[in-house]
Amino acid sequence: MVSWSRCLCRLPALVLALTLVLGSMGTALADQNDPALDGLFRDLKAAQSPQEVRRIEAQIWTLWFDTGSEQMDRMLLAGDRAMSAGRFDQSYAILNGVIEHRPDLSEGWNRRATLRYLMGDYDGSIADIGETLEREPRHFGALSGLGLCNIALGNEEAALDAFERALVHNPHMPGVQRRVKQLRERLGRHAI
Description:
The protein is mostly helical. The protein has 10 helices and no strands. The protein has helices at about 5-20, 35-45, 50-65, 70-85, 90-100, 105-120, 120-135, 140-150, 155-170, 175-185. The two termini are about 25 Å apart.
């Protein structure tokens, strides 16, 4: 069984790779307000094949990660690189800079939420996830992270709620599906 923390550690590298490959196509201004996201989320829900799911997820992450500013893009990438390398203090300082300069950007908050989770600061991660979801309520990555934080804090009801909310926006997350099934069984709930 793959551990959630190991999956989260790989996520920044995946986002980095996708951004480098797909980000070169660029947009004038992307982020959580890009109008293309509505169609991508519709397509994601209707996707039939794993390849289609991966392609659409990559497009969503690319838009979330593209700030429309080369400097901010570089800062997000540097924050992710530092996080992936275990240089948490450096990553924290960089991501704070992103949030300071672009507090409207959901992915700045989400990246710092991921970092705080990895640092064991679950309450801080939950606070940053709240900021992420305020800006992008469909952020399935943040919702999944919220579930993980609540598991770490022993709050299985809240974890189940977060995981189920993640699946509303992206029903193609097998790890989250397994977590929902396990939590429902443990909490004595039946599938809807």
